[in-house]
Amino acid sequence: MLRLVFVMELAPRSSPVPLLLLLLGLSTGAVINWPTEEGKEVWDYVTVRKDAHMFWWLYYATSPSKNFSELPLVMWLQGGPGGSSTGFGNFEEIGPLDVDLKPRRTSWAIQQGTIQCNFAGVALGDSWISPVDSVLSWGPYLYSVSLLDDQGLTEVSQVAEQVLDAVNKGLYKEATELWGKAEMVIEQNTDGVNFYNILTKNTPMSAIDSSLEFTQSHLVRLSQRHVRHLQPDTLSLLMNGPIRKKLKIIPEDCSWGGQATEVFLNMEKDFMKPVISVVEELLEAGVNVTVYNGQLDLIVDTMGQESWLRKLKWTELPKFSQLRWKPLYCDPESSETSAFVKSYKNLSFYWILRAGHMVPSDQGDMALKMMRLVTQQE
């Protein structure tokens, strides 16, 4: 559920450095000492600690600017938790090719160029910053769009209050179980609304992998709902087939997506912990913080995002709140509004219209325009 986009300012170097850095996650296996380079791509493993390695994949800009020192590096970290930047983020959202290996017109690797490791900012895309604010807003949000009736709203709100009570008492493991209960109540009352886009329905959950042992049913359901969504069969076949052959460095005992469920299960006590204070620290330190959210997202709905934003103990928040938002248009010749934005000093908030949780997948043109605005390329 959390996606982070880090923006680095660039410095001139003797050779071009890629725009887009995709991080997969930890993996055990052999490590190649030197990166494998092919055309405008570079990939490799980096050792994080003993027997733990992280795979990364860099894309060079295909339309480099004349002034490389002024262009950004964008580093994409997928959520889930347990999702893959090099898989889902790459082929389903922002990479140069889609899952059918066809060029993506709205790829984030097209427009920009090189790097300097000065931390310039962070973008929080439909991010799980304050879980309880999200859960508390689910009922009112669904009710406002006619996906809950009065009885359904009451049932969802009752469970949400139980989540709030558990979080207030510091019972985060219990809060995670209640979070799963809240999602079940929503599915029952909405005829299976999709948590990633309320205009669609959930697909039936696939059978649980028989090779895994699940002892807590609520974690099973949560994992199925939030991790399997990021590993569709078409993407798994692509990553474990043609992409594996292309990269040539993946250990034989390592399969794409094989660790996702384990990652998810180990986050049980952390899911419901708020990190609003981290955002406050970034803002007070002068780091540029961009929050963007899809209008049709439920798991991290915009109402919940606005709620925790109002709780920020940032000295400039009153001035930010007093501003009026501005409309944004993908096509300068069109009057159709694609998004709204509000910015003050180092905080920006983008309301992305007609998009669910996966903004670049749902509204690629607007996501690309936003990226250009955030990195001051437009």
Automatic annotation (TrEMBL):
The keyword Hydrolase applies. Residues 1-29 form the signal peptide. This is Serine carboxypeptidase 1. GO terms for biological process: proteolysis. Belongs to the peptidase S10 family. The gene is SCPEP1. PANTHER family: RETINOID-INDUCIBLE SERINE CARBOXYPEPTIDASE, SERINE PROTEASE FAMILY S10 SERINE CARBOXYPEPTIDASE. It comes from Equus caballus (Horse). One of its GO terms (molecular function) is serine-type carboxypeptidase activity. It comes from the Eukaryota. Keywords: Carboxypeptidase, Glycoprotein, Hydrolase, Protease, Signal. It holds the Pfam family Peptidase_S10.
